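Researcher: Structure for this, please.
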Amino acid sequence: MRTYMKMGSLMMISAFVMFGMATQADAAWPERPVTVVIQYKAGGGTDTLTRAYTKAMEKALGVTVNAINRPGAVGALAMDYVYAKPADGYWWLGASQFSKPLRVLGHTKLIAWKDWQYYKCASGLQAWAVTADSPFKTMADFLDAARNNPGKYTMSNSGVGGIWNEGNELLIKEAKINIRQIPYKGGAPGVLACLQGEVDVAGSGLHEQIEFIRAGKLRNLAVFVKEPITLKDGKVLSPVTDFVPGLATFAPFGSEYTLGVRRESPVQALEKVKQAFIAAVHSPEFEGLLKKKFFFKAIALGEEADRMAALRESVTAWLFWDLKLEGAKVNPADLGIPRPEDFGAWWPPEGYKSRISSK
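Model: Predicted structure, token format:
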């Protein structure tokens, strides 16, 4: 009897010691450098913002954050790479769009709201531009030429299923034109392709075009908004809805920039990441970058970010599937993704539980 009591007592003591050690370990996080793996090539919006806010997070966390690029499969290569690492908070995903098209494209089985904790910091706008010597002076010129010469003209995008591919598809559908999209590993390479004459039009983020527009190397045709945008030098960027009114339903349209951490990481680590992330996004340096590059601060955390991730996937997955987009291989219904009109009744899905607060 006494032997069993002693064994029970030892087991309880051992459990308390292990619990205390785990608690201390969580409280001490982070104790070594963190690595953030960026989904796209250097120079694009995802790369630029990820490097900026993670650099600013170093001060709050007290450790170095090393950034590496691992482009490919519209971000799926980076996602799978990070997900294969331990869920200890030391591996992050420098992401965009909540990786919303990847399941319908068949690139991953990972579920954004279920497998990742996302932290959203900013958004950007889609724009279309041509070189300064292009015969297209306005978006109307390009649309007229495209209608009169089906299949003749080309437009860059950030990869099949990428955000700029999605925006281009909406333009093609609503404007009733036939053009060829050329995929690149990110919006920035697509802009360079336009400058080098590889494509007729760059379809990418305004932030990826703005410096070339200011320098006179690119001419903006339109931005995916409803109202004109006036630059400091007085130059006016036209809203695409002036040329294609049917796009008003989707405007403003563009990118969303997020940091992803494996959802099953210790909650203490997730909370510390959140606090450092908030501080970084509100820092003067980061806000200055947003303003300079035509990004817009838009923070979403916790359940708000989870819901946003699920909703974005719902809209994009069904858009791609209904449009029979090249690359859309998996029926969203087979993945359990609700149609956008059914999303309100579906959320929150069975088994969902928020891991961190939204503030």
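Researcher: Any notable elements?
Model: Residues 113 and 310 are 6 Å apart (CA to CA). Residues 32-124+255-346 form a domain with the D-Maltodextrin-Binding Protein; domain 2 fold (CATH 3.40.190.150).
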